[in-house]
Amino acid sequence: MKRRSFLKGLAAGAALAPIGIHTFARSARAAGEGRALFVYIPDGCIPDRWHPRGSSGSSTFTLPEMSAPLERVRQHLTFLDGLDMYAGGPTHEGGCAKVLTGTDPTSLDVFLGQTLREGVPHPSVHLGVGANFENGSGSFSRLMGTEVKPDDDPLNAFSRLFGGREMTDTSAEELRIRRRRSVLDAISGDLTALRARLGAVERTKLDVHTESLRELERRLMAPVGGSCSDVAFNAGGYRNVETDYYPKTYHKEDNFLTVGRLQQDLAVLSLGCGITRVASIMWSHPVSPTHVRDTTATLGNHDASHYGNADSDTARQFVALKRWFAERFAELIEKLATTPDGEGTLLDSTVVMLCSELGDSNAHDHKRVPFVVAGGAGVRLRGNRFIDYRGGHGGENEAHSKLLVSIAQAVGVPVDTYGYSGHGSGGLEGLLI
Fold first, then answer.
1. Closest Cα to residue 148, out of 102, 96, 215, 213?
2. Cβ-contact 121, 222 below 8 angstroms
3. Which residues pair with residue 146 across a beta bridge?
4. CA torsion through residues 351, 260, 124, 148, sign
5. Is-contact 342 319, C-beta < 8 A?
6. What is the layout of strands, in order, in the sheet containing 35-40?
7. Which Pfam family name is an example for this entry (predicted)?
8. pLDDT value at position 228?
9. Which of 83, 270, 310, 416 could bridge to 425 as Cys pair (CB 3.0-4.6 Å)?
10. Which pTM value belongs to this model?
């Protein structure tokens, strides 16, 4: 795969860092058939209160209190224990940087978006719920080492993705033709002359920026509405108040649940309408200061994550917060599972990954990180399973980068490695059917 294929679809100002090249081959099944959705929740977990208890590889397991709200959708879920994030930086920031990259410069959501971009207006859609508010720890989406920031404003995101319509009258058609004339085509002679005067490194930089601008033009020209003729997005009375300067309306803790549900609806709508094949949602961010109002917790999420003794009141609050995020994920899975898509549902053809940036939040480690995967037969997944990879690699836990490989394979992009490869190539054994 050419280097520039990784760069398309985002703004021209991305930093020029070395690009990881992945072993790539066409599968017999058409690329683009599957969809992917990545969901982040902050600050790890208490491993023994999140990971299932029971037999690996079977449906005979129970969910402890942190993950118990997922019981109602367990028929769609595969719970994974024993996945560690290796290499890269430690703690919150390092975990955020590698949870979707495996230490590759480009995160899996961005990579899959570029690979599966044919026929969709947006290669990937990145949504946030307070993800940029008081955030010093970054986004989990990356392009060549540069963060791809999610859009925290659901109304702005909806307008950007669905707000325009093509004009149909004769004069409008003439205007549209003029608008569709590429700026790059208009200055192609100048670009050619400039390129001839540049050295090899500078020519590469010029090519990268030209490709990014070309992709931006394509996105601006693309039909906005995807495959849905009627778009139903109910904001439920939510609106942004112009006088809300800091925090913005969508960053206020009182609106955290409302904004989160709107963003989840928008992700489902974007995937179902063919706006994109890849989407991501960040609930807050690492070192999250968020107080979740409709829980019994009074501490912010990060403060609660430093729970100390597992029987402390702080631990109790952290359990309540983690349960709240699990409930939101259950709602998302239910939405996907009840959204018609062809002869099945949207979940049948979508692989969903739930993740965080830490394993045990109290220890600030990257061991036994809480990963859950959902999807249907269209992406080679079967639910109601628990797979335990602890000690399965010569006494070490398995590498989470193999999960990234499996997700790519599930949507028809058969990479052999993604980022860290110290535990060998290939995906997770037993995950895909």
1. 96
2. yes
3. 143
4. negative
5. no
6. 125-129, 278-283, 35-40, 350-355, 371-374, 77-81, 385-388
7. HXXSHH
8. 75
9. 416
10. 0.82
Domains of the chain (ranges, CATH numbers): 23-165+232-410 (3.40.720), 167-222 (no CATH)
Which tokens go with 35? 């969809």
Instruction: Give me 136's structure tokens.
Output: 């010093």
More confident residue, 328 or 180: 328
| Residue whose tokens read 């990479």 | 415
Answer yes or no: are the C-beta atoms of 302 and 162 closer than 8 Å: no
Per residue in 369-386, pLDDT (tens digit) is 999 999 999 999 999 999
Locus of tokens 């706006």? 275
Q: 38: which 2 tokens?
A: 């990545």
Tens digit of each residue's pLDDT (9 = 90 or more) over 279-309: 999 999 999 999 999 999 999 999 999 999 9
